[in-house]
Design brief:
The protein is α/β, with parallel strands linked by helices. Helices cover about 45% and strands about 15% of the residues. The chain has a seven-stranded parallel sheet, sandwiched between helices. The protein has a three-stranded mixed sheet with strand order 7-9-11.
């Protein structure tokens, strides 16, 4: 059995679904079910004995100790995190509690559990920490992409909290010998993405006839990774990654935010045209830029390819088409996640264009 934290969120749920599509090894799924955690993401696993869900907090040490002792996982995959930059600017404390204190408590519980394992199980055990390229800071247009050796220079409360968690994981390996490996991924997109992030927000707002808010000049550049490619990379790193190492996971796809929005609009024009015949791009509206907005992220994923033979299977063209089609095919999922709290958040964040 493996233990997955945050397995009802966007990347975590996709990973759980991907894992059980490729393996019969059971998953113990621990998720606090905050606004971004959604059990409907896992509806297809109802009645599947391979999936055991527990609602709980990674900061609850007693719960962690009980779960580890009872289920004896051979690996822990740590996805659970607060992950939205805008939310971290408005309320950073939740990010410190979950991403820093929560990771610390998880590491300590896992260390105690791992230390008591028999020698063969102890040697085979793994703790895989899922992190982000945002810990590296920002790049100018002509700088090389982030490699694993790039200096850690986080610029937002979110990325600072994730950088802190990365440092904790590294320290627990070097100090205590905990068998860890860390992945730092670029911007994920795909099915089950909570619609506060750029791509699902554009899809949902476009279909609802609402403005499509673009920060600043829209020229912020990101590397986009299809979430199921990310899942395959994590499976590969868990299988063969070197202990104590960091592996960057990217999609080899740098694009400016405004270009992403135009691509999504063009796909919607094709797949679900507006009733009035106008292009969805007519709904684009520019809003004041985010404070301290990083200008460019880019991932150099050659280490992962060189050492473990991993490459993304999707191009951006194939991945974004699948993503837009998924949202068109699942309006009930979108309606379910758009709670009153979510709508209040969007209204606050983009009040200039509501």
């Amino acid at each position: 059995m493996i233990l997955v934290t945050g397995g009802a969120g966007f990347i975590g749920a996709n990973f759980v679904l991907d894992w059980l599509a490729h393996s019969d090894e059971p998953v113990l799924n621990l998720d606090k079910l905050t606004y971004a955690g959604n059990l409907h993401n896992l509806d297809s696993l109802q009645g599947d004995a391979r999936h055991l869900f527990v609602q709980g907090d990674i900061g609850d040490r007693a719960l962690l100790d009980r779960l580890l002792a009872q289920h004896q996982p051979r690996a822990v995959l740590h996805f659970a995190a607060e992950s939205h930059v805008d939310r971290s600017i408005h309320g950073p404390e939740d990010f410190i509690q979950t991403n820093v204190v929560g990771t610390f408590r998880l590491l300590e519980a896992v260390r105690q559990y791992w230390s008591a394992l028999p020698a063969t199980q102890k040697e085979a055990f793994r703790f895989l920490h899922v992190s982000t390229d945002e810990v590296y800071g920002t790049l100018s247009p002509d700088e090389p992409a982030f490699a694993e050796t790039h200096q850690i220079e986080p610029n937002s409360p979110y990325s600072a909290s994730k950088a802190a968690s990365d440092h904790l994981v590294r320290a627990w390996h070097h100090t205590y010998g905990l068998p860890v490996v860390t992945t730092n991924c670029s911007n994920n997109y795909g099915p089950l993405h909570f619609p506060e992030k750029l791509i699902p927000l554009v899809i949902v707002n476009a279909l609802a006839g609402k403005p499509l808010p673009i920060y600043g000049d829209g020229q912020q550049v990101r590397d986009w990774l299809y979430v199921r490619d990310h899942c395959s990379a994590i499976r590969r790193v868990l299988q063969a990654g070197r202990l104590g190492e960091v592996y960057n996971v990217g999609g080899w796809n740098e694009q400016a935010n405004i270009d992403i929005v135009h691509t999504v609009c063009a796909l919607l024009d094709e797949l679900r045209p507006r009733a009035d015949g106008q292009p969805y791009a007519a709904q684009i509206t520019y809003v004041q830029d985010r404070p301290g907005h990083d200008r460019r992220y880019a991932i150099d994923a050659r280490k992962l390819e060189r050492e473990l033979g991993w490459k993304p299977a999707e191009t951006f063209a194939t991945g974004i088409r699948k993503t837009v089609q998924w949202y068109l095919d699942h309006p009930e999922w979108v309606a379910n996640v758009q709670s009153g709290a979510y709508r209040a958040w969007v209204a606050k964040q983009y009040e200039a264009v509501q």
